[in-house]
Amino acid sequence: MIDYYTAKSLGGNTRKITIMLAETGLEHVVNYVDLDRNEQYEPWYRAINPNCKIPAIVDHDVPGGLAFGESGAILIYLAEKTGRFLPVSGPDRARVMQWVFWQVGSVGPMVGQLSYFAGRAPEKIDFAINRYRDECGRLLDVLEGQLSGTEYIAGDYSIADMANYSWIKPLYESFMRAKRPSRVTDLTHIPRWIATMSTRPAVTIAMTKFEGTALRVGKDVEAPLA
Fold it and tell me: Which residues contact 117 (CB under 8 A, 6 or more apart)?
């Protein structure tokens, strides 16, 4: 059984783990970390994830329990644990890993910086906003090109799609509302991929906010913990 640590205000990094857990049906308990009260900095959570970020997991199937964070590492670990959504070796695995790390190293940081400078920074700095908006637009162009030749990002449905969906969907929709950059309205493959992803039940679960303080999920069970 897995303890899964997230927050009620689900973000891109937590939603992709929620997708993976739902897709695999792994039995797990959802534990909410109260970010408003800085619970992530308390010693008990620091022992789980020294970086004091969400998400994190503790896999109790491993003797003594295996505790760690970093959403990309969690995705890969769960894929290897279940033997699903990540090829075992060879070129197909390399392609999936490329797009997982593309999200972790490019999409996540750039979208995060744009969100901060455009929405939460105490001072509006046009240079920063424009710099991150332009880079996010470029990243959408990169993904548009990749999806022009394949239904899913790396061929078959994989953790590459899970990693990117919860970041790309809100970014694309935000750009469409603002029509900035203007070329976003010319994209066709990204909205097609978003629509395809949105039909998956696991994705629907991940994009819906959990209620309560903890849930036990798996083996056809989804009920509040006492």
Answer: 124, 125, 128, 129, 132
Quick one: pLDDT at residue 209? 54
Other CB atoms within 10 Å distance of the CB of residue 147: 20
Q: Are 55 and 17 in contact (CB under 8 A)?
A: yes
Q: How many helices (H) and strands (E) does the chain have?
A: 9, 6
What's the mean pLDDT in 201-225? 54
The yes or no reply on domain 90-202 and CATH 1.20.1050.10 is yes
Find all residues with CB under 8 Å of 192, minimum gap 6, and list them: 147
CATH class entry, domain 2-84+205-224: alpha beta
- With tokens 């939460």, the residue in question is 120
Q: What is the pTM of this model?
A: 0.90
